[in-house]
Write a structure and sequence with these properties.
Blueprint: E1 7-12, H1 20-34, E2 39-44, H2 46-52, H3 60-74, E3 81-85, H4 91-100, H5 105-109, H6 112-120, H7 130-133, H8 135-145, E4 150-153, H9 158-175, E5 187-190, H10 218-225, H11 255-263, H12 265-276, H13 282-308, H14 311-340
Parallel strand pairs: 1-2, 2-3, 4-5
This protein binds tryptophan.
Length: about 350
């Protein structure tokens, strides 16, 4: 990684305990940036959760809690990184509203992520809520409030960062002609590690039921790894196996091998050689993988357990994070209101 640093803002919707796809795709990178001198802001995007499901909110709190424990377990350090819940910083709502004036409905309807969501949820485009349509405007507010220079996200989120840049530019152009620009145009920062596939070889996703949790207990880890997709042509243990994908045969590549490369890099090549030559069966291969993965993730489980046993300390992390987040958010909003000329004539109570 280069020695450039800056300020990042990234968020996750509270979906509960995180899986290894979330870790490899995002969280691991956040920790890396935190530990190499970046200024990190990490947000639980609970309002975003409402955009696609506002009726059943019964698990929102629990999901927030479980996710923050995973963040802490993975090594986000509350001294270095600011962690907070979106709904605790009301400035997000205010900036969202102001920015919503600067973008057309047609522009929002063209965002590919939104189209995909509508398709995945089997929704009728005509029934989309006002809030859901504004999903990316809310995300832009999240980012711009903290004057983030970079937004570490997956490919699917890039259109949202692009909209964020447009809004910052438009705001600065319209309202900052006579002053320094108020909003910072952020860069998307793509996580360079490919996403980890799920146990069945498809994209890892809670809704597909193919996940391994970040803090999976060893027994459950083994049970799950034993079900992982390998090479359907390797029926007996001494049949030669194909770790790599075989396009001609629709074989997407062995998931167990992919995990070895990620969590057991030192042994991965020799394991692949044994597999190809029919000297290693899938059962033994998987047992070894489960063991190595459980060991590799033990420090994360251990740290998570410690935090879990001290809920007051976790609440303090979020309280302190909210305070630090609000300090920055308030500063930005003061400038935004003043540039836009929407400061009240009388001071608010
Ligand atoms: N939309 C993001 C996702 O679904 C979550 C998110 C909300 C976010 N606000 C953000 C990500 C701000 C980056 C920056 O993954």
């Amino acid at each position: 990684m280069s020695n450039v640093t800056g300020r990042i803002l990234s968020g996750m919707r509270p979906t509960g305990r995180l899986h290894l796809g979330n870790y490899v795709g995002a969280l691991e990178n956040w920790v890396r940036l935190q530990d190499s001198g970046w200024t990190n802001f990490h947000m639980v995007a609970d309002w975003h959760m409402l955009t696609t499901g506002h009726e059943d909110t019964s698990r929102l709190q629990q999901h927030t809690w479980d996710m923050v424990l995973d963040w802490l377990g993975a090594g986000l350090d509350p001294v270095k990184s600011v962690m907070f819940v979106q709904s605790a910083v009301k400035e997000h709502a205010e900036l969202h509203l102001l920015l919503s004036m600067l973008v057309s409905k047609a522009r929002l309807e063209r965002i590919p992520t939104l189209k995909e969501q509508i398709r995945d949820l089997g929704m009728d485009e005509q029934t989309i809520s006002y809030g859901h349509l504004g999903y990316s405007v809310l995300q832009a507010a999240d980012i711009l409030l903290y004057r983030a220079t970079h937004v570490p996200v997956g490919e699917d989120q890039v259109p949202h960062v692009e909209l964020t840049r447009e809004l910052a530019r438009r705001f600065n152009f319209i309202y900052c002609a006579d002053r320094a620009p108020v909003l910072t145009e952020p860069e998307p920062q793509l996580t360079n590690f490919a996403r980890l596939r799920g146990l069945d070889g498809q994209r890892m996703s809670k809704s597909l039921g193919n996940t391994i949790l970040l803090a999976e207990e060893p027994a459950e880890m083994e049970r799950k790894v034993m079900q992982a997709y390998t090479d359907p042509k390797k029926l007996r243990k001494d049949d030669p196996g194909r770790p790599e994908a075989d396009e001609n045969d629709g074989h997407p590549g062995c998931v167990v091998w992919e995990y070895h490369r990620k969590f057991n890099a030192g042994e991965a090549e020799s394991i692949a050689t044994l597999c190809r030559s029919g000297m290693l069966g899938c059962v033994a291969d998987k047992k070894r993988l489960a063991q190595v993965m459980s060991e590799a993730l033990e420090p994360i489980r251990e740290r998570r357990r410690k935090w879990e046993q001290d809920p007051d300390a976790v609440r303090d992390v979020l309280r302190d994070g909210t305070r630090r987040a609000r300090e920055v958010a308030r500063e930005t909003m003061d400038q935004v209101r003043s540039a836009m000329g929407v400061k009240s004539i009388v001071e608010p109570e």
